[in-house]
Write a structure and sequence with these properties.
The chain is globular, with a radius of gyration of 25 Å. The protein is α+β, with helices and mostly antiparallel strands and 529 residues long. The chain starts with a helix and ends with a strand. It is built from 13 helices and 31 strands. The strands form 6 sheets. It has an 8-stranded antiparallel β-sheet. An 8-stranded antiparallel β-sheet has the order 27-24-26-25-29-30-28-31, with helices on one face. It has a 7-stranded mixed β-sheet with strand order 2-3-1-4-5-11-6, sandwiched between helices. The chain is 25% helix and 30% strand. Bound molecules: guanosine-5',3'-tetraphosphate.
Length: 529
């Protein structure tokens, strides 16, 4: 297979959901179809103690949750699929957001009884920023669900996107009889509704075959379905692949990951509708995936996967060309040529050294501490630099101090290194040093991760004092005496370690106050490149 064919058969996507909507279950079923795992429970083995591939950190193991995002590769029907998993617990960090930067499309899993939930909202916002295709899998139809029209309406109204149901559910809960395939104008149902089987042989029946339909799903369900389909055909958006490709129209699939219903049709349609690896912007212009020249960017750094070695693993998304294991590449930010050490790819339940990988793939390399998030690795002869990865505004703040002043050095080193990995953002009050660091995080669990890591990896105990702030803004005015600003008493002035001035606020109301009372003050949202 030549370079172009290899790249064109790649599909790299992230799965997002609010916790418990069924992301892990769906991922697992996809891996089962691809033959990448043999048994359900390999991805998340709470009961069986088989740990998910992302369970590297001790803290994760203790909690039985997955803090970091991982990536899994498998083959299906000639496609080479990379699934980027995003943390599935109540909390999340910038890591989740950054993972979305490495994907070419996103699958959003929604619980049919709950509709859109808070984390779906946050993740959708970041996905929408990138204008990449978004596919919706409405899950758990085997349980009581909300009206499907209502669910579509919610997606359209809240997210401002069009919806195109690729299939339509016939009932839900104990009355769930199957789905109607809108393209083939057929229903897929079963003689008997099996639960928990890996593959089911569906019975197909034309929507016009009233007699057979009555036999299969009953007259009542048939009448209901025909009415709903008529309504749907009349009122819904037309399918338009260009709209799908730019994220303005989301193909919607109804199913039940747990009972395996609708997973295979979803996968098949999804693979056809989604895109091969996309071109990426660099300072030198766009880089197309089929370019002969290898290039990749760092989107995730995972520290201390092996405590004994203090190692870090850096994950890169290959954006163009082919990666070869023993070749020398160029690290743009470090201004150095290097060989990537022990390049690895993560399969469903194992890691393996890769000799070659292509645009669309993700590789992990051992990192002695040279890479930062957003860095570019490419060919020395064809230097490019990828556009930075946005920084996401922290929403929680705390003061962190070391308990033992003799440990100051380790404390500073630890906090700085963890900040460099992008797990936390650090600030300080003007005119103070590193004794009291103000830490900002996207999800509160990151505080616990920070404390745990400072203790375990740097041998430093810290005192954390949570702060009430929730919003952060840059002060963009170059010449300004911040101490003279008229601010509410619960607004705080902080600086980052480059000396930039920022304000942290407890409410939006206080942001508006600052703008109202200080003419000419320019505040900028924190998310930026
Ligand atoms: P997440 O990764 O999005 O957090 O969700 P996960 O797949 O772990 O699923 C959350 C719970 O919902 C699990 O049950 C899972 O079995 C169940 N679930 C997933 N898909 C479906 C579905 O299509 N129908 C039904 N009825 N349930 C579904 P749990 O009891 O919390 O966990 P477990 O003990 O089964 O692992």
């Amino acid at each position: 297979m030549d370079l172009k064919q290899e790249i064109n058969r790649r599909r790299t996507f992230a799965i997002i959901s609010h916790p418990d909507a069924g992301k892990t279950t769906l991922t697992e079923k996809l891996l089962l179809y691809g033959g990448a795992i043999q048994t359900a429970g390999s991805v998340k083995g709470k009961a069986t103690a088989k740990h998910a591939v992302s369970d590297w950190m001790e803290l994760e193991k203790q909690r039985g949750i997955s803090i970091t995002s991982s990536v899994m590769q498998f083959e299906y029907d000639g496609y080479c699929i990379n699934i980027l998993d995003t943390p599935g617990h109540q909390d999340f960090s910038e890591d989740t957001y950054r993972t979305l930067m490495a994907a070419d499309s996103v699958v959003m899993v929604i619980d049919a009884a709950k509709g859109i939930e808070p984390q779906t909202r946050k993740l959708f916002k970041v996905t929408a920023m990138r204008h990449i295709p978004i596919f919706t899998f409405i899950n758990k139809l085997d349980r009581d669900a909300r009206d499907p029209f209502e669910l579509l309406d919610q997606l359209e109204k809240e997210f401002g996107i069009g919806t195109y149901p690729v299939n339509w559910p016939i009932g839900c809960g104990v009355d769930f009889k199957g789905v109607f395939d809108r393209d083939r104008r057929q229903i897929m149902t079963f003689n008997e509704f099996h639960r928990g089987q890996d593959r089911l042989q569906a019975i197909e029946c034309d929507i016009t075959d009233t007699e057979k339909l009555d036999e299969l799903i009953g007259e009542y369900s048939r009448r209901d379905l025909v009415d709903q389909i008529e309504l749907l055909d009349g009122a819904s958006f037309d399918f338009d692949i260009d709209q799908v490709r730019c994220g303005k129209l989301t193909p919607v699939f109804f199913g039940s990951a747990l009972t395996n219903f609708g997973v295979e049709p979803f996968l098949e349609n999804f693979l056809k509708m989604t895109t091969a690896p996309l071109a990426r912007n660099t300072t030198e212009g766009e880089v197309v995936p089929e370019s002969e020249n290898f290039s990749a960017f760092v989107f995730k750094i995972q520290a201390n996967m092996n405590k004994a070695h203090r190692d870090r693993m850096t994950f890169m998304r290959i954006c163009s060309g082919k990666f070869e294991r023993d070749k020398e590449y160029y690290h743009v930010q470090g201004k150095k040529s290097l060989r990537l050490s022990q390049p690895q790819q993560l399969m469903a339940d194992s890691r393996q050294i890769v000799n070659e990988a292509y645009a669309g793939d993700i590789i992990g390399v051992f990192d002695p501490g040279i890479f930062s998030i957003g860095d570019t690795v490419c060919e020395a002869k064809h230097k490019v630099e990828f556009e930075g990865i946005p920084t996401f505004a922290p929403e929680h703040f705390a003061v962190i101090e070391h308990k033992d002043s003799l440990k100051r050095k380790q404390f500073v080193k630890g906090v700085e290194q963890i900040a460099q990995e992008g797990a936390i953002q650090i600030f300080h009050e003007p005119n103070t040093g590193m004794e009291r660091v103000i830490v900002g995080v996207v999800g509160v669990l990151q505080f616990e991760v920070l404390e745990h890591r400072l203790k375990n990896e740097y041998n430093v105990d810290v005192i954390r004092t949570n702060m009430p702030y929730q919003f952060i803004r840059w002060i963009k005015n170059e010449e300004i005496d911040v101490s003279k600003l008229n601010l509410t008493s619960d607004t705080k002035w902080v600086q980052d370690f480059k000396g930039n001035n920022l304000l942290i606020f407890t409410s939006e109301w206080n942001i508006n106050w600052a703008l109202d009372k200080n003419e000419g003050l320019i505040l900028e949202d924190f998310s930026r490149n």
